[in-house]
Design a protein that fits this description.
- Two copies of one chain form a homodimer.
- The first copy, chain A, is of the alpha/beta class.
- The first copy, chain A, has two domains: 125 residues, ATPase, nucleotide binding domain (Nucleotidyltransferase, domain 5, 2-Layer Sandwich), CATH 3.30.420; 153 residues, 2-Layer Sandwich (Nucleotidyltransferase, domain 5), CATH 3.30.420.
- In chain A, 33% of the residues lie in helices and 20% in strands.
- Chain A has eight helices and ten strands.
- The first copy, chain A, has a five-stranded mixed beta sheet with strand order 3-2-1-4-5. Chain A has a five-stranded mixed beta sheet with strand order 8-7-6-9-10, sandwiched between helices.
- In chain A, helix 3 packs across helix 8 and helix 6 crosses helix 7.
- The two termini of chain A are 24 Å apart.
- Chains A and B meet through helix 6 of A and helix 6 of B.
C-alpha cells in the first residue's frame, strides 16, 4: 500500500518552509518562499502543493506550524485564522481559505508549538512527558507539549512578553517592545540586541558582558517555565541561541535563578541535560508541521 | 439509595480542615485540628474519620488538598507522600499510610490545586475552561485547573518563586526567601510584608505606598500566568488578598503590566471579571477536597 502524503507548512515571519512528506516522515518535495502579504504568499503556497500533488499524488492531510497570533482551537469557527497580528494584511487571513481546495484535513498550531512537537518526538525532547521549546530570535515564544499535545488556555502562550527584572545600572537599555518596553522580548530578542549594541551577540567585539545580560533574561524565562509548568526539559532555539557560549550562560544563570529550590532528577547539576539546544536544529519547525499533518491523517483537526 | 460518604482533608501549614460530606456536597461532620508533626497530626486526622464512620457509615473515598511539596502523580509509588519539605517531620510522611485503614480510594492534590478545583466548579471560576487560583498568604502558590483537572509537569507548580522585577529605590527590602531573596514570595508573602513594614497591609497606618508595591508584584505573576497559561480567569485568595483595596490595585497593575497586548473577550477593560477574589472565600480548599474525593468515588485516584 502506498503511503499517504502530508503537506507541511512552517510559516515564519521571514519565510515559509513548505514540504510534502510521506507518513514515514520522508520528505519528497520541499521549498522556501518569502513571507509577504498573504495575497501574494498564500497562493504561491497553494501552487506548490498543487504541483506536488500532480507529481506525487493527492495530499491526504496538512500540518501548519505558523507565526501568530492565530486561532489554534479546532472547535473554533476561526480555526487557522490570524487574529490581531500587526503584520500588514495578515489579520483575518486563514490557512483553510487557500488549502481548502485539496479537501484534506488541516491541522494548525503555532510555530513554537510545532517546533516543540518536533523536538518532543524526534529531537532533544525525546522521552519527555512535558517539553517546553522556546525560540529566541526576531521574537521570543514558547510552546509546551505534554505527551504529544500542545498546551493552551483560551489562546496559545506568549512567553516573550513576561515581565523580567532588569538592573538599570548594568543594562540601561529601556527595551523596545511597543507594548511593554522592557519585557523579555523587548530586552532579549535579536532586534533588541541589535538596537542596544549595534550588532548581533555573535559579532560583538566584546561579547562577554552583553552575553551575561541576555543569558540572565532568558534564564528568568527558564525559571518561570520551570515554576509554572515543571517541564521535563527546556529546549532553546532560534537565531540568538546560535551565539557561541549562550546556552552555557543560560544554564548557569538559570541554575542561579532557581537557587536549588526545585529538587528533581530532571534538573541535573549544571542543567547540561535540562537546558538544551534543539536536537533538530532549524528543522524542528517543519518536522513538527509534518507531525501535525500526520495527526490529521488520523482524523484530528 | 443512601449517598456514599466522602472524607475530605484540607491540609494547611497551620491547620487541617477535616470534613465528611455526602456525594451531594452536603457536609455532615467537620473539624479543625492544628498542624503539628505528622506523628501527632495524622493519627488525630484518622481518629476523626474513624469516629465519623462509626456515626454515619463507611467512608467510600477520600479527597486530600495538601500543602507541599507532595507527590501528586497517581502513577507514582510515592503518590500522596511529602517530598523535600523543610517542615519538621513531614518529609516522607504519606496520607495513604494513615488513611489506608479505611480501604477507600485516596485522591491527593495540592492545596492550591484543590482550591482551584473548588473555585472552578462552584466559585468564581464557574464556566471557565482554564482557571488559575493563586493564594497569597504565608506562602504564594498557584493551581491551574483545565476542564476540571489540575495541570502539572513532573511536579505541581511553584509560582511563589518566580523572578519579579523589584525597583530598589521604591522597595529596598532585599526579600526574605531563603532560596532566592527577592522572588515573588520573598517580597509579597504575608511574612515578607510583616518583616518589611512591621505589620500586615491591613493594619498599616499609611498603606497606600506598600499596597501599590505588593500589588505590582502580584500583578507580575498575573501577567506571567496570562502569558504562560492563558487562563479564562485568575482568582486570588489567601490572607494577604483580604487587604481592602488590594484586588483593585492588582487589577490596575495587571492591566498596566499586560499593556493591552493580549486582546480577548476574557480580559475585560479594568479586569473586573478577569481578576477575582474567591467566590467560596475560605471554603475553596475544603470544597476542592470534597470534589477530589468525589472523583475517587468514580474510580480515579
Amino acid at each position: 500500500m502506498t503511503e499517504r502524503l502530508i503537506g507541511a507548512v512552517e510559516a515564519g515571519g521571514t519565510k515559509f518552509v513548505l514540504a510534502v512528506a510521506r507518513e514515514s516522515g520522508e520528505v519528497i518535495a520541499e521549498t522556501r518562499i518569502a513571507t509577504r502579504t498573504p495575497d501574494k504568499c498564500l497562493p504561491e503556497m497553494a501552487a506548490f502543493f498543487r504541483h506536488a500533488a500532480q507529481a506525487h499524488g493527492p495530499i491526504a492531510a496538512f500540518g501548519v506550524a505558523s507565526f501568530g497570533p492565530i486561532d489554534i482551537d479546532p472547535a473554533s469557527a476561526d480555526y487557522g485564522r490570524f487574529t490581531t497580528t500587526p503584520k500588514p494584511g495578515w489579520a483575518g487571513a486563514r490557512f483553510h481559505d487557500v488549502l481548502g481546495e485539496f479537501g484534506a484535513p488541516i491541522v494548525v498550531d503555532t510555530d513554537v508549538n510545532g517546533a516543540a512537537l518536533g523536538e518532543w518526538a524526534m529531537g532533544a525532547g525525546q522521552g519527555c512527558h512535558t517539553l517546553a521549546y522556546t525560540t529566541v530570535g526576531t521574537g521570543i515564544g514558547t510552546g509546551v507539549v505534554q505527551d504529544g499535545h500542545s498546551l493552551a488556555g483560551f489562546s496559545h502562550f506568549e512567553s516573550g512578553h513576561i515581565p523580567v527584572a532588569r538592573d538599570p545600572v548594568h543594562d540601561p537599555f529601556p527595551g523596545r517592545c511597543p507594548f511593554h518596553g522592557d519585557c523579555l522580548e523587548g530586552l532579549a530578542s535579536g532586534p533588541a540586541i541589535e538596537e542596544r549594541w549595534g550588532s548581533s551577540l555573535s559579532k560583538l567585539a566584546s561579547p562577554a558582558g552583553p552575553l551575561e545580560i541576555i543569558a540572565d533574561y532568558i534564564a528568568q524565562l527558564a525559571a518561570s517555565l520551570v515554576l509554572l509548568h515543571m517541564p521535563d526539559r527546556l529546549v532553546f532555539g532560534g537565531g540568538v541561541m546560535k551565539t557561541p557560549g549562550l546556552i552555557d550562560a543560560v544554564r548557569r544563570k538559570a541554575e542561579a535563578r532557581l537557587g536549588g529550590y526545585v529538587q528533581a532528577p530532571q534538573l541535573d547539576p549544571g542543567l547540561q541535560r535540562y537546558v538544551m539546544l534543539p536536537g533538530l536544529g532549524d528543522e524542528a519547525g517543519i518536522t513538527g508541521a509534518i507531525l501535525l499533518g500526520k495527526r490529521g491523517l488520523g482524523g484530528d483537526h
